[in-house]
Amino acid sequence: MAKKNYIIILLDKKWIGKFFQNRFAQYFHGAKKLIDFDIEVIKIFLNHQRLIARYNLILSGRNGIFKKTIIVKAEKKIGFFGKPAGTKTDYSTNIFLREQKLDNLVPRPLEYYQPLRAFFYEAIEGVCLRQLSINRHSQEFMDFIPIVAEAVQKIHCLKNNKIIVNGQHWENKQHKFYLFLVKKYYPFGFNHFKNLIQACRDFKIKNKNYFRSRFQSFRLTHGDLHSGNIFIVNEKIKLLDFSDASASDPLSDLGCFFIHTELMFEHDFHQNYKEMTDKMKLLFCRNYFNRDLSDSDKKIIYYYMLSNLCRIISYASMDGNKHKETMEANDLLEKLIKIGEEKIKTSY
Question: CB-based contacts of 214: which residues, under 8 Å, 6+ apart?
């Protein structure tokens, strides 16, 4: 099985049927028989390194026939830089949060299947926060920002000694990896992107006094916090995809969420996205800090916004590589780099 492509295995109805036959009763209390199921691919990304798929199960039990949906996330390789596989980190973080009585914030994990580096969890019946922006429901989106901020703050109160520490050493490796991706997949913009990475490094060196004491504040962080990983369920939220979770600076999550949301608003509400972004940041910070932002907070969040923008550009260059013939991907990357250059000009 190890020699066979993990995507083929997880989308093979015969193989996955046998897999679920041995597990459905363990997954779902009261289930007596697996009647049927279908498979739906949600996403294959990062140059076919990762897969997300949905299994729609029809089961029978004491009270008759019922349906359940399982999501699987799998990846081809172990994590970058020798880190554990992202799917394993996702699974273990979900388990940890449930142990800390925060199970209301995450989906129900079912199993981590090591041979395929596959994390199975019960699907969430809800609406992605990102969808509110796509549908131009700006006020409804803003109404959920305080709820998101409070949920993230609860997670940031936790320490998990079993998770990797994402300090300066890892940041340097990440930046080198981003440079590698852009040089390989978007060489036309490499020099401009290299300047963005250097601007990140220079800013941190210039403001090293603000960052020096941050290590003591390291807590559990999500690592990829954006509206696409936040689901609304009965007016509450659940957080998905802890693949990049680590012990890190909590403000890195804020920088990540802010830059992702700003880019989303720029696309969905182009005419007034700056005002909306400022409003979103203010709402989030008021509910997260319960105080005014210090100069230190502003500088650190700015740094993580710029660093996460570099990450977005590098991953977009790899995912966009297969669309070179349309030039659409290159136009997007050029636009993102210009946004980064503009942020450098207006830095704190």
Answer: 249, 251, 300
